[in-house]
Amino acid sequence: CMGQWIKANRKFIYNAKSCDITAENAIMMKDDKYYYAIIPAVPMGSNINVAHGVVEKMITVHTDKKIKGAIWLDNGMKVQMDSKNSFMSKAFGYGSSLYMRVARFTL
User: Fold this and answer.
1) Count of C-beta atoms within a 10 Å radius of residue 7
2) pTM for the full model?
3) Helix or strand (DSSP H, E) at 37
4) Under 8 Å CB-to-CB from 53, ≥6 apart: which residues?
5) Can you count the helices (H) and strands (E) in the chain?
6) pLDDT tens digits for 68-106?
7) Measured distance CA(7)–CA(103) in Å, rounded
8) DSSP state of 34
9) Measuring CA to CA, which residue among 2, 4, 12 is closest to residue 103?
10) Using an 8 Å Cβ cutoff, are 88 and 80 in contact?
11) Residue 38, Cα to own-chain centre: how many angstroms?
Protein backbone atom coordinates (compact mmCIF):
# COMPACT_ATOMS: atom_id res chain seq x y z
CA CYS A 1 0.00 0.00 0.00
CA MET A 2 2.86 2.42 0.80
CA GLY A 3 4.37 1.85 -2.66
CA GLN A 4 1.01 2.61 -4.30
CA TRP A 5 0.69 5.85 -2.28
CA ILE A 6 4.20 6.98 -3.25
CA LYS A 7 3.54 6.19 -6.91
CA ALA A 8 0.24 8.13 -6.87
CA ASN A 9 1.73 11.12 -5.05
CA ARG A 10 5.31 11.21 -6.32
CA LYS A 11 4.71 14.61 -7.93
CA PHE A 12 5.00 16.31 -4.54
CA ILE A 13 6.60 14.09 -1.90
CA TYR A 14 10.22 14.80 -2.80
CA ASN A 15 10.07 18.61 -3.03
CA ALA A 16 7.18 19.86 -0.88
CA LYS A 17 7.83 21.75 2.34
CA SER A 18 5.65 23.22 5.04
CA CYS A 19 4.02 26.55 4.24
CA ASP A 20 2.35 29.53 5.88
CA ILE A 21 -1.17 28.54 4.78
CA THR A 22 -3.29 26.34 7.04
CA ALA A 23 -6.46 24.32 6.49
CA GLU A 24 -9.16 22.58 8.48
CA ASN A 25 -8.92 18.78 8.17
CA ALA A 26 -5.76 18.87 6.02
CA ILE A 27 -2.02 19.30 6.30
CA MET A 28 -0.74 22.03 3.96
CA MET A 29 2.55 21.93 2.05
CA LYS A 30 3.99 23.64 -1.02
CA ASP A 31 6.77 23.42 -3.57
CA ASP A 32 8.03 26.02 -6.05
CA LYS A 33 4.86 25.85 -8.15
CA TYR A 34 1.92 24.31 -6.23
CA TYR A 35 0.20 24.05 -2.87
CA TYR A 36 -0.89 20.65 -1.55
CA ALA A 37 -3.69 19.77 0.87
CA ILE A 38 -2.97 16.36 2.39
CA ILE A 39 -6.12 14.79 3.82
CA PRO A 40 -5.57 11.89 6.24
CA ALA A 41 -7.94 9.01 7.01
CA VAL A 42 -9.84 9.09 3.70
CA PRO A 43 -12.02 5.97 3.48
CA MET A 44 -12.52 3.58 0.60
CA GLY A 45 -15.84 3.82 -1.20
CA SER A 46 -18.19 0.96 -0.41
CA ASN A 47 -21.50 -0.55 -1.33
CA ILE A 48 -24.15 0.79 1.07
CA ASN A 49 -25.60 -2.74 1.35
CA VAL A 50 -22.29 -4.09 2.62
CA ALA A 51 -20.75 -1.34 4.77
CA HIS A 52 -21.72 1.82 6.58
CA GLY A 53 -21.91 5.00 4.52
CA VAL A 54 -18.70 6.87 3.78
CA VAL A 55 -18.12 10.03 5.81
CA GLU A 56 -16.56 12.87 3.85
CA LYS A 57 -14.71 15.77 5.49
CA MET A 58 -15.00 19.44 4.59
CA ILE A 59 -11.57 20.90 3.86
CA THR A 60 -11.28 24.68 4.21
CA VAL A 61 -8.05 26.35 3.12
CA HIS A 62 -7.34 29.54 5.07
CA THR A 63 -6.25 32.13 2.52
CA ASP A 64 -7.73 35.30 1.09
CA LYS A 65 -6.58 34.29 -2.41
CA LYS A 66 -8.72 32.18 -4.76
CA ILE A 67 -7.73 28.53 -5.25
CA LYS A 68 -7.23 27.65 -8.92
CA GLY A 69 -6.80 24.40 -10.87
CA ALA A 70 -7.32 22.01 -7.95
CA ILE A 71 -6.94 18.30 -8.82
CA TRP A 72 -6.58 15.03 -6.92
CA LEU A 73 -3.03 13.72 -7.44
CA ASP A 74 -4.01 10.04 -7.30
CA ASN A 75 -6.39 10.21 -10.28
CA GLY A 76 -6.02 13.67 -11.87
CA MET A 77 -9.72 14.47 -11.42
CA LYS A 78 -10.86 18.02 -10.70
CA VAL A 79 -11.55 18.95 -7.07
CA GLN A 80 -14.98 20.60 -6.76
CA MET A 81 -14.30 23.88 -4.92
CA ASP A 82 -16.90 26.20 -3.43
CA SER A 83 -16.64 30.00 -3.24
CA LYS A 84 -15.09 29.89 0.26
CA ASN A 85 -11.97 27.89 -0.72
CA SER A 86 -13.57 24.75 0.68
CA PHE A 87 -14.09 21.28 -0.77
CA MET A 88 -15.23 17.86 0.34
CA SER A 89 -12.76 15.03 0.62
CA LYS A 90 -13.84 12.25 -1.70
CA ALA A 91 -13.59 8.57 -0.81
CA PHE A 92 -11.28 6.38 -2.82
CA GLY A 93 -12.96 4.17 -5.41
CA TYR A 94 -14.37 0.83 -4.31
CA GLY A 95 -11.56 -1.66 -3.68
CA SER A 96 -8.87 1.03 -3.44
CA SER A 97 -7.63 2.82 -0.33
CA LEU A 98 -4.41 4.76 0.06
CA TYR A 99 -5.41 6.27 3.45
CA MET A 100 -4.42 9.85 2.50
CA ARG A 101 -5.52 11.91 -0.51
CA VAL A 102 -3.64 14.91 -1.85
CA ALA A 103 -5.23 17.86 -3.63
CA ARG A 104 -2.88 20.07 -5.69
CA PHE A 105 -3.67 23.69 -6.59
CA THR A 106 -2.33 27.19 -7.22
CA LEU A 107 -3.39 30.52 -5.75
Assistant:
1) 10
2) 0.85
3) strand 35-39
4) none
5) 1, 8
6) 999 999 889 999 999 899 999 987 766 667 778 999 999
7) 15
8) -
9) 12
10) yes
11) 5
